[in-house]
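ok trying again, last paste got cut off:
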Amino acid sequence: MKQKQLVRFVAAVLALGSCVEAPSHARGSVYHRSKEARLLDKEMPRLLSDLHVKSVSFATIKGGRITNVAAYGAQSTGVPATTGTLYNIASLTKPLTAEIILQLASKGRVSLDEPMDRYWSDPDLTSDHRRELLTPRLALSHQTGFPNWRNAQRGLAFDRQPGTAWGYSGEGYQ
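nice, full thing came through this time. structure:
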């Protein structure tokens, strides 16, 4: 998908999804979708087709509560996407993780410089005291000292002293 099309698609999903309100329930077990949700149901198949996107799933959150979940398209040939469809989004979770941590830090709920081992440490690192140096700031800036991913035979181990050099590490974020 071309970048311009991707931007259009994401903007359309966000615009349509942001106007969806919590579904209302009428008498008995009759389920009624809001006007906005019906619009999304109508427009999303066309958007997917026009932009050559196979499927999309999302949730709308308002006031800290999930107000709508939806899935459109197919996860594979003949298999419709559901709200449980898993997507391979790779490193796209890293900016979201960073944003959440930075927002929590700006509100004083977490410290970027507090050692993380007070809360959890990977079992592979129990005998390596360098784990005590790891902080959210080092993890967010790829300065954990870890390789990109752990070695299957030896497990997780430091390649270098935390905080001494930059090195991309998916493991450090995980």
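cool. Residues 93-173 form one domain. The chain has a mean pLDDT of 82.
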